[in-house]
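[Meeting: bench + compute handoff]

Bench side (C.D.) handed over the final construct sequence. Compute side (W.E.) agreed to return the predicted structure before the next meeting so the bench team could plan truncations. Sequence as handed over:
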Amino acid sequence: MFFISVNIMKVGNYSEYTLIESIKAGNENAFKSLFFLYSVKLSLWAYKTTGDKQAAEDIVQDFFLQLWYKREQLCIDISFSSYAYRAIYNASLNYLRDHERYEYGVTLMGIPDEDGDDEADDELRIKLQKAIDELPEKCRKVFVMVTLEKKRHTEVAAHLGISINTVKVQVSKAYRIIRNKIGFFSFLQ
């Protein structure tokens, strides 16, 4: 069972809560209304993360398909909008991870991507990627999951079968190694 809470937001003559309840009851028109209300916004959100229009559209479509298939299990706890954006963001990160289409999230970490206009940024980007690549395997895996995939320490610990404290130690170790290799890099924390 998965939980969604709905803030009362008007969609035409219906509130979001009413739409969710109607979807739970199998109302296809309510589902279509929710889809048309959010699909474009969520596709743009996924596109910002993946940089791939087709993948973004697929991610959103998959989200809504799963929502429909699991409609009877819906429980209400947070706003649908918050739930949807978080689900799309996580699915987009999974897409990036599975398709290895990111350079260890350099732009996520605060280094602007200026298409090579600034040599200093390019040099820093290269150094950062090299430093991350050279991390010990376990340390790199934990670091990427926590900092780039934005997973919680508890999620990483459960996924890798290690303690939360080990996750914290590995992330700290990664930051220390990267700072030492790059020289400055205080913005990493």
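W.E. noted at the follow-up: DSSP finds eight helices and two strands in the chain. C.D. will use this when planning the next construct.
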